[in-house]
Known about the structure:
Low-confidence stretches: 204-224
Number of strands: 5
Strand content: 5-15%
Helix content: 40-55%
Strand order of the largest sheet: 1-2-3-4-5
Mean pLDDT: 81
Oligomer: single chain
Shape: globular
Structural class: alpha/beta
Order of helices and strands: HHEEEHEHEHHHHHHHH
Distance between the termini: 33 Å
Largest sheet: 5 strands, mixed
CATH architecture of the domain at 1-130: 3-Layer(aba) Sandwich
Radius of gyration: 19 Å
Amino acid sequence: MKRDSIFYKLFAQSPRSLFELLPSPPKEADVYRFDSVSVKEPNFAIDGVFLPPSDKPGIVYFAEVQFQRDPILYERLFGESLLYFYRNRQRFTDWQAVLIYPRRSTEQKDTLPYDCLLDSRHVTRIYLNELGPIDDLPLGLALMVLTIQTKKKAPEVARKLLDRAQREQIPSEARRDIIGMVGTIISYRFNNLNLREVEAMIASSFSETRVYRDAKEEGRQEGAEMTQRSLALGMLAEKIPVETIARITGWTIEDLQSLEKEAKKTKTKKAKTTKAKA
């Protein structure tokens, strides 16, 4: 199960969730925009970038989610990030990199060439299994920790998070996003189940919650379809066979192929726009 697409979806919905990991978040955290960018000559694509408002210079944040050991992760991360910072120096006052690992054993072993950077204020390394009790974490961080739960614990943790989303004083749209993210994470974790089976697994806190009913009453009956669409797009991005995606989501293979073509067109258009701005 590749989890980076889940994290990037979470960051897109709630950029503040990244800054909750940092000891000194920027004052303008609420107005940062999560995006992917490209760097010319050579052409690098950097997926996890948090950009300050375009009309006000600020710090650019590079987020890297790494759930499998990469022996040259830091070579790539610092090479691409610093080149992008160099190409856009006039837009940013400084840079920071945030690396998210499930545990310390996943980190690149040979760090000698980068020790001065890794120990500096420019880099923050997060190990999800060391963040503390999940019940004590903000919901955004708790969703991240949900991705590393065992199959035995994941359903119970998911139910608790959905209960929290119902109880806590947060905007209704944020509640819907959290419910969707919990469903997506559990669907990835149990990819042999379809959506109805996933809902049954966490039924007491998902399909039957007041939040879920309120969403329907507010004219959000399309919410389940949107969850299916998001789930399908995430799995297509990870190159999961369409036959498997069809079984999980209930979509036909033809619909999934059309969705994949649509996503590729959107990504190409977005990349061209970003490249032109850069």
